[in-house]
Amino acid sequence: MRVLADALSLIRTGGLQMRVFAANSSPRPDDESKTALMLSHLVRGMREAGAEVEVVNLREKKINVCTGCFFCWTKTPGECVHDDDMTLEIYPKWLESDIAIYATPLYDLNMSAYMKIFVERLIPMVEPYIKAREGRFYHPRRNRYPAVVLLSVCGYPDISQFECLSESFRRLFGIAFRDEILRSGSEALLYSGKLAEILEATERAGKELVTRKHITQKTLDIVTQPLDSAEVTAHLGNLLWKTCVEKGVTPQEFWDRRMIPYPDSIEAYLSIMRYGFNPEGAAEADAVLQFDFSGEQEGSCQIKVLKGTIETAMGTPYEPTLIIETPFEVWIEIISGEIDPQQAFMEQKCRAEGDFELLLKLQDWFANYKRRSGR
């Protein structure tokens, strides 16, 4: 079976195994980086489609900055004067690849410092002479250029934030630029119910790059889909940062402690619950949860869960299956894991009326805040 799989892979790639070089320029460790998260799934798809993929974490390599000496243009054409990991290891692998993936977080609307140094050190690839094409001047290439794929993430809620980075890569690499995978709202993505769908589509994008040479628009639409309205995503992001500031924790400590953004309104609470909804855990569900809040935020709201779907509403438009009466701040401490729910009910800080068994299912229905697989 393995021989057959290898044979099919060779057929798909035109008789030769496709070679892919992936440069990850995030300064964060892989278990903290959303860039690495997206890249790992893209690479998984490419490998499953038969490509040979090597991932290089630039933060782990010794890559000197370009000094502008132009030795690579004059004294040693095509060869850099620096005797470092870029010259001895990375550049040769990049040069031999069919596709080069440039994975970078969005920093100041452009690429990270690690990526900028890497790109600048590719200057031996071009000659010093200046030519023109369609009204634009450029340096001609010495060798065949790997096809370029850009992958980037940012915390901003709107994809328009990538415009500067995208244009930079299009101008830098010209006709070699093949595709781009851009994911906004990256912090919110980790506790979004759309995380699994987006990562699955990212793997599919990797397969399509190998088998089709391009990513289909249908796949890109899934990868780049909004998590919510830009305004809601931005507000939840601000709540996350506010929680980190008030609790004195970094974002990574926030995730490690499995915290949630502290909502400042009932509407924000409902948004957070939508983000944390786990469709798989609620696949058999059919219930309406009603919350009658007192304390910091007074009012009622409902969450309707039906066979893997969720609807939220202010007020009480549906017939409730379970009614929970509680001070707002107490309930937030419960879902944040700061106090024990059983103890809160025993001390009558909370009261419930209706199907009490639903209380045991809430953790499965809203498990995205607690899960860390795929991070």
Describe this structure in words.
The chain has 375 residues and is of the alpha/beta class. The protein is built from 14 helices and twelve strands. The protein has two domains: 2-223, 3-Layer(aba) Sandwich (Rossmann fold), CATH 3.40.50.360; 230-365, 2-Layer Sandwich (Nonspecific Lipid-transfer Protein, Chain A), CATH 3.30.1050.10. It has helices spanning 2-12, 34-48, 85-96, 113-120, 163-173, 186-189, 195-211, 217-223, 230-247, 251-256, 266-275, 328-335, 341-346, 358-365; strands at residues 19-24, 52-57, 99-105, 131-133, 136-138, 147-153, 177-183, 286-294, 299-306, 309-314, 322-327, 351-354. The protein has a five-stranded parallel sheet with strand order 2-1-3-6-7, with helices on both faces. A five-stranded mixed sheet has the order 10-9-8-11-12.
